[in-house]
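Morning run. Coffee first, then this:
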Amino acid sequence: MKGSICAVLAATAVAVSCKKQETVNPVLVTSTVEVMLGEPATKAFGDNKAEDWEKTVNNVALFVYESGQDVCVYQRQFTEYEVSKQKAVFAIPNVKENTPYDFYAIANCDFTAEMASYATNKQGVARSVLEGTAYQEGMISGSVSRFGNLVEYNGSFSVISKEAKRNYQQNNKGFAMSGKESTTTPAKIDNVPTRVTVPLKRTVAKVMIKSSITSDFIKKYPGTGFRIINAEIDSLAQQTFLMKPKAISSIALRNDALKQVPDSVKASETGTFTLFRNLFYIYENGIAGTAVAKTEYKPILFLTAEFDFDGNWETKEDKSTITYEIPLAGEAGSIDNTKDANFGLFVRNGSYLVDVAINGLSSNEVVAEIKVEEWEPLKTQNVEIGNRN
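And here it is:
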């Protein structure tokens, strides 16, 4: 056979040219790995539009283990180019053929210390450590984790509905995401690389709240004024693992609720502000299919409203404050499904729309419906206020 052969080593980004076939020393094809990152699904406020800032990947740390083994066989930080392409091609030394391997990817978290240590002593992060308490978000033993906490995600509606607020210390910018995928390496004779796509999911769930008065409310209280001035969610998990755990045996609760002043949307047909919106990001509090054991682990929504008797907000003597307390059904979908094992369950990367319809001035006049958007499938909880006298 005449001519020449050119080999491209994608793992080292070095091109090697040769004039004679016999001078080529090809690497084992099965040592070459192509890793793709699966983009996390998301939706905007109540619709199907994807939000760029909720899926932006700024950095990626990759860890590879032989299935069933604790020792890390390979770890690397994606280069800026690889992050932009959401793909990396490299060679794993001494990879075995026809062998299952597990690939872990963690995005938007600072793993520079682990990578620097690996470069020095060539010992990677053990699987048990990567999945353990060493790598968590939130408040850990009274201190903020090096990866930040819920405060980093939450803020005013105007900010977090337009950008990723989380920017905690070095390389912890954007939503923390993680994923795991397993694949079996091909046989040497197959002459193909190992290809795997690792799906990324955020470590937080997204909770959207839409609140409005109904026509029944207007009929009951004509000429009055009503507005929601604060929303807060209590009974929230304080921390979460970077990698999704197989089980959650206990939950550390936050000492304070997440609070937010609602965004007001003007209803053109009435000329008044009748729709109020809130947005929160929270940690998971359990695993789907298992009961959230204790009541205090189930998030509760508190809406604080002002009622003005004559509809004139300038007068001061005729105002009253009302607080609506609404248990959040989460994965159960309905406030009536209290016996559902998933009642009050919120999962990582889940997205929930709570649609609150206010029919009156007491909590038993509220109907809430929850919808779980993509991130994960959507469920709806309706709240009616005013049906009971």
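Residues 21 and 131 are 47 Å apart (CA to CA). Good start to the day.
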